[in-house]
Design goal:
137 residues; alpha+beta; Porin; eight-stranded antiparallel barrel; 17% helix; signal
């Protein structure tokens, strides 16, 4: 996918997240990740989370979600604390031979706005991870 196509997708994605209803306790986490070479493209370099702490709800978006789901996906809020909160979601990627189902977990480290992403392809023994940082908007 070309640079300008990716840029247009991201502009639409972030604009779409900006249109979601926000409450007083809600934040948008715009996370930049550095996936390792072994991540095989399963981890996007940018993940956006719309997190409503008061409601305990979240939505996630990245290049794969936009491509396969057409827009943000509901994420589960896991183990929120004063120090960190994790968000999890599943994504099924259809294939002509066999669909791939992936479990994603992004943990936001509040003290330094760090981010840790882990991806597990279900039915396989390997895992992928990345670290980075989030901008709170």
């Amino acid at each position: 996918m070309g640079f300008f196509v990716k840029r247009a997708l991201w502009a639409g994605l972030v604009a779409g997240l900006g249109l979601m209803p926000m409450t007083a306790g809600a934040v948008v986490l715009d996370c930049s990740l550095q996936p390792g070479a072994d991540a095989m493209g399963w981890i996007s370099k940018r993940v956006v989370i719309d997190y409503d702490e008061a409601a305990g709800t979240a939505r996630a978006a990245d290049e794969a979600i936009q491509g396969w789901n057409g827009g943000p996906i509901e994420a589960k809020v896991r183990k929120p604390s004063a120090n960190q909160v994790s968000f999890t979601w599943d994504l099924t990627i259809p294939d002509a031979v066999q669909a791939a189902r992936l479990q994603f977990r992004l943990t936001w480290l509040k003290a330094d706005n760090g981010a840790v992403m882990a991806v597990k392809p279900l039915g396989y023994s390997n895992n992928f991870d990345a670290r980075g940082s989030c901008k709170v908007k």
